[in-house]
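ARCHIVE CARD
Drawer: 12
Card no.: 0347
Subject: one protein chain, sequence and derived structure
Cross-reference: see card 0346
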Amino acid sequence: MQITEERKNSLEKTYQYYLHHEAILKMKEIPAHMGSNVYIHTFKVVKKVMKKALKSHKNLDLENLLVASIFHDYYLYNWRTTKDRPRPHGKHHPHIAAANAKRDFDISEKSQEMIKTHMWPFNFFNPPKGREARILCNADTWVALIECLSTRKHKAKKENKYLEDISHLF
């Protein structure tokens, strides 16, 4: 998919806004898969999503896809230690993330829908609707799988590289 320099700059500006936003930075404190944190996981997913989207020959809604990928895990709690959270986490966190993103950033309905369906097939009866939602779902699954297969020691050594890798969208 070819995009204009103007659109690319607009996407980068949106990315940078959220990358450094105080509310998003709090995700660094929340553990994710096997020693990672939600912040690094999220922006690795964003990079994977945009790479896949730009390779597509389809006309995609990159702006909503970018926002949905940034907020797909915006649930804001440690699911391993928080007692009063809905269980199972994998089934409920997409709805919590979408509600939090709507509350804190007033994201679009389309972005909310992509967030709510990103855990398919775990949420079997809530499949992704549309190409953008499928890209997000697949990217999140792939990144989570790689994180789960990597050792904590390996991740600790690579954390600065991950932070450098996610410092720019393009």
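Annotation on reverse: The helical segments are 5-19, 22-25, 38-55, 62-71, 89-105, 109-116, 131-149, 152-165. The chain has one domain: 5-165.
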